[in-house]
Design a protein that fits this description.
heterodimer; A: mainly alpha; Histone, subunit A; two-stranded antiparallel ribbon; B: alpha/beta; Amidase signature (AS) enzymes; 15 helices; 11 strands
């Protein structure tokens, strides 16, 4: 299957990966190849087959108490921030 | 014999008999790393000082009674496991100098068992690859060479640094993670043992996520017994990972050498892929003969959806990756590229921070999950995944374990990597189906090919029946008597 440039640009935008025109073209061609290869799956009859979620055949996932079990780690949470002001992460101005 | 030549089982015994100290054992490995890591690039970060400190502590523990099994054993840790206070990179630029303030559950379990970590091993970026060529910290060299040929070879991937470190005796064992073959394929390429446990056997907490429904940690070692020892220390239920199984961890080591009388071994017809080399076919046939000789009954089985495994994987894994890797935004941790707007900051950070293969997978994943395509790709893939799992469930009604090759070829040269991503993905053809179904699987080195490179065979078992894999794997290991060692290893460096 072939992918058009507009779709490729839209996907890159959704993924928040900035690509220049040349990179978009390379990605378009490669993704087209991958998606074409994946079309082999269209020959499988999946009528009535439930989708698999998780792989455990044994038990359903457990539910825990909805209670706070951890916290009060402000300095740990902020320790790896590339930029911060006081107890805040910083980003470029979002609201004018 | 050099200390670096010992197995984990031998070293644990030697430490207890006071034949040598944990400090001596760790020093021997640190020296080997100093001598060889410049060439092999198996470690991204070497933690020599911490290792020596931990070894000194281990010697004290060993002086008292009841030291845990791995006390004083030097291990490599794939740089995908968060290690408290030690930089963790996932072999990506985007994590910058990220230093986790916490310890992953698997590494915490190993530390509680007394293990000494000598360093963080190299990998394909975010564990996405089969060559270790996608690491932002440079390629890893496989310690093996073809006969009379100095071409540097790939160690496989994604746990290529772990495999190279163990093969070259730069660690007694190492952790790996396996999403579609990332423990088993590099183990086969480097002539070592690699065990991917059942999904849910080891906690995923604190391991940097690639595809959450597939990722599983496991041991990489030089013997099956060592894999059993390491797995027992790594495995177990963890309340911090709701998908980790609340099932008791058995004494895996006791399964080594267990009688195989009457055990039924399945040989799946669909793994006889067209184009399989006569040499690989012969190794597989030899493995079948060894197990028959050991008392197993050989049964032909069919896994009819095998040929759809790879394509299904290359929808599901990128989809989950695109979601998991959304967190790398340049705001809360890792590297950042500034931008005039928040979107520009994200787009520049993620363009510069991710390598080409990671970007490609995020984009494919974004596409298959995007509006209008979800049903056609992701939902369909999840249904085919059900069919793949049913194949295994049906096969395991008539057999106890499956025997297949681990990888279609032996290791190849750094410069022999296919340019087409789809050709590259074909490397995972034999390992992906077991991952899709959550089955445990073990790769054991069996022989050398005509060029002198190791080939491995894969055993696939029932859910949570790693014991049968270990029992059959140890029989295969004994029959194969694989004693060859790579060109580059501790004490034998050229």
């Amino acid at each position: 299957m072939s992918l058009d440039l507009a779709t490729t640009r839209r996907i890159a935008k959704l993924a928040r990966i900035g690509l220049d025109d040349q990179e978009i073209e390379t990605v378009r061609a490669q993704m087209g190849g991958i998606l074409g290869w994946i079309e082999i799956l269209n020959e499988v009859d999946v009528e009535g087959i439930p989708p698999m979620v998780g792989t455990s055949q044994t038990t359903a996932l457990p539910q825990r108490q909805d209670a706070v079990t951890d916290g009060d780690r402000q300095s740990d949470v902020l320790a790896n921030a590339p930029d911060r002001e006081g107890p805040f992460f910083t980003v470029p101005k979002v609201v004018e | 014999m050099m200390l670096t030549d010992l197995t984990i089982a031998q070293a644990a015994e030697g430490l207890r008999k006071r034949d040598f100290t944990a400090v001596e054992l760790t020093n021997a490995h640190v020296e080997a790393i100093d001598a060889l890591n410049g060439r092999l690039n198996a470690y991204i970060t070497v933690t020599a000082d911490q290792a020596k400190e931990a070894a000194a502590h281990a010697d004290k523990t060993l002086a008292a009674a009841d030291a845990p099994t791995l006390t004083g054993i030097p291990l490599g840790i794939k740089d995908l496991f968060c290690t408290k206070g030690v930089r963790t990179t996932a072999a990506s630029r985007i994590l910058g100098d990220f230093t986790p303030p916490y310890e992953s559950t698997v590494t915490a379990n190993l530390l509680a068992n007394g293990a000494v970590f000598v360093g963080k091993t190299n990998l394909d970026e975010f564990a996405m690859g089969s060559t270790n060529l996608t690491s932002a910290f440079g390629a890893v060299e496989n310690p093996w060479r073809r006969n009379g040929d100095d071409t540097p070879l790939v160690p496989g991937g994604s746990s290529g640094g772990s495999a190279a470190a163990v093969a070259a005796h730069l660690a007694m064992g190492a952790t790996g993670t396996d999403t579609g073959g990332s423990i088993r394929q590099p183990a086969a390429y480097c002539g070592i043992v690699g065990l991917k446990p059942t999904y849910g056997r080891c906690s995923r907490w604190g391991t940097i996520a690639f595809a959450s429904s597939l990722d599983q940690a496991g041991p990489m070692t030089r013997t099956v017994e060592d894999a059993a020892i390491m797995l027992a220390a790594m495995a177990g239920h963890d309340v911090k990972d709701s998908t980790s199984a609340d099932i008791a961890v058995p004494d895996y080591r006791a399964a080594c050498g267990r009688s195989l009388k009457g055990l039924r071994v399945g040989v799946p017809a669909e793994y006889r892929a067209p184009g399989m080399s006569a040499e690989l076919q012969a190794v597989w046939d030899r493995g079948v003969a060894m197990l028959r000789e050991a008392g197993c009954e050989i049964v032909d089985v069919s896994l009819p959806h095998t040929k759809y495994g790879l394509a299904t994987y290359y929808i599901i894994a990128p989809a989950e990756a695109s979601s998991n890797l959304a967190r790398y935004d340049g705001v809360r941790f890792g590297d950042r590229r500034e931008g005039a707007s928040l979107d520009e900051l994200y787009e520049r950070t993620r363009h510069d921070g991710f390598g080409e293969e990671v970007r490609r997978r995020i984009l494919v994943g974004t596409y298959v999950l995007s509006a209008g395509y979800y049903d056609a790709y992701y939902l369909r893939a999840q249904k085919i995944r059900t069919l793949i799992q049913r194949d295994f469930t049906q096969a395991f009604e008539s057999v106890d374990v499956l025997l297949t090759p681990t990888a279609p070829t032996a290791a190849f040269g750094h410069n022999e990597k296919p340019e087409d991503p789809v050709q590259m993905y074909l490397n995972d053809v034999f390992t992906v189906p077991a991952s899709m179904a959550g089955q445990p699987a073990l790769s054991v080195p069996v022989s050398l090919d005509s060029t002198g490179l190791p080939l491995g065979l894969q055993l696939i078992g029932r859910h949570f029946d790693e014991e049968t894999l270990i029992a059959v794997g140890s029989a295969l290991e004994k029959a194969a008597d694989f004693t060859a060692r790579p060109t580059f290893r501790a004490g034998a460096a050229a």
